[in-house]
Design goal:
Layout (H helix, E strand, L loop, with lengths): L4 E3 H8 L3 H9 L6 E3 L2 E5 L3 H13 L4 H32 L1
Antiparallel strand pairs: 1-3, 2-3
Length: 96
């Protein structure tokens, strides 16, 4: 599947946010920006995460360091949920 991209300026205009926020996320290593022909792009697959970061920052007032910490916690929770599912499958076979 080919990755699709959206221009950062277009996204920021549509979402009414500053491009500096996205660039700051990239500098912190939270988000990846693709640069082509003097234009900056985001992969559309990253948009759900960006939406979450945007809400945390603009709605809740969380700074970049807090966003990074919360992102790690969310990723860890997802990993733990996968582990729990696997353990449930394994224990189901032991019980039967």
């Amino acid at each position: 599947m080919e990755t699709k991209y959206i221009k950062i300026t277009e996204y920021c205009t549509n979402e009414n946010i500053e491009s500096s926020f996205i660039i700051a996320l990239e500098k912190e290593g939270i988000l990846h920006i693709e640069t082509r022909e003097n234009n900056q792009y985001l992969a559309t697959e990253d948009l759900p995460d960006l939406e979450m970061f945007k809400r945390w920052h603009y709605d809740l007032g969380i700074n970049l360091e807090g966003i990074d910490a919360m992102r790690h916690m969310v990723e860890r929770m997802k990993e733990m949920q996968k582990e729990i599912k696997q353990l449930r499958k394994q224990t189901r076979f032991l019980i039967e």
